[in-house]
Write a structure and sequence with these properties.
By secondary structure, the chain is of the alpha/beta class. It has helices spanning about 20-30, 45-55, 75-85, 105-120, 135-145, 160-170, 185-195, 225-235, 240-255; strands spanning about 5-10, 30-35, 55-60, 90-100, 125-130, 155, 175, 200-205. It has an 8-stranded parallel sheet. The radius of gyration is 17 Å and the shape is globular.
Length: about 260
């Protein structure tokens, strides 16, 4: 059984002491490919070094909404240059809106739309972070579609309501579930996981954050995406082998990953 973790941050400091062991663990759990998200473009050179160490790693480059106060006119050119510099770049992101932790809405919107344009120019998918901003996100993306053209991508670490889930399905996005789907009281996420069509379903860890049960409260790591697959399979009354096959095929299609 093969799995793909579609959102990792193994460049974080709390992986540096035992990263080789972490890699051995993800390989032993059947994780054959990983997509490494980017919080700020300055991280990208270090991510390239990681991809050189771990050939199963693909890369994204972008700016997280909580970094949007650092967005400048030159940021688009920087992200574009990095995206074109390495064939292992498979997405732009993570990017998006986060109105839970930041009130700098105009900066976030500028950074988000700027990165949508890069993705459109390069025909790459976007990795979208959306927290307490689903309605605004829907409206911005719909307007972008009307004025500048379609973009493809994934709503990562999704925690929206079923109604919000349907908004982004209608916009053509994939929906990715993280370890939060294993939490007992995450009822609306459970409902969303049950309604996403097979061909739009993805799984991830968002490590080192949001470790799934039974590791909740500890450092998350790519091997634990198997727990996400288990819980999604249970919620959808499918086998974990079926979920693995579905999500692996979807990840390879969205991110153009090699089989």
């Amino acid at each position: 059984m093969q799995l793909i973790d579609t959102h990792v941050h193994i460049n974080f400091e709390n992986f540096q002491q035992d990263l080789e062991a972490v890699a051995m663990n993800w390989r032993s759990h059947g994780i054959v490919q990983l997509v490494h998200a980017c919080v700020h473009p300055e991280q990208f050179p270090g991510m390239v070094e990681l991809a050189n160490r771990f050939p199963e790693l693909s890369l994204a480059v972008g700016m997280h909404p909580l970094e949007a106060d650092r967005w400048q006119t030159s940021s688009s050119a920087e992200i574009l240059a990095y995206a074109q510099s390495d064939q292992r770049v498979v997405a732009i992101g993570e990017m998006g809106l986060d109105f839970y932790k930041s009130e700098s809405t105009s900066n976030q919107i500028d950074a988000f739309t700027g990165q949508l344009r890069i993705a459109r120019q390069l025909d790459l998918p976007v990795i979208i972070h959306c927290r307490d901003a689903a309605e605004q996100m829907r409206d911005i993306v719909a307007d972008f579609w009307q004025t500048e053209g379609l973009v493809k991508g994934v709503m990562h670490c999704w925690a929206g309501t079923p109604a919000e889930t349907q908004w982004f399905l209608d916009l053509g996005f994939y929906i990715s579930f993280s370890g939060v789907v294993t939490f007992k009281n995450a009822k609306q996420i459970h409902a969303s996981a049950q309604m996403v069509p097979d061909n739009r379903l993805l799984i991830e860890t968002d490590c080192p954050f949001l470790a799934p049960m039974p590791h909740r409260g500890k450092r998350n790591e790519p091997a634990y995406v198997s727990h996400v697959a288990d819980r999604v399979a249970e919620l959808r009354s499918e086998t974990v082998e079926s979920i693995a096959a579905t999500t692996t095929a979807n990840a390879r299609k969205l991110f153009s990953l090699p089989a």
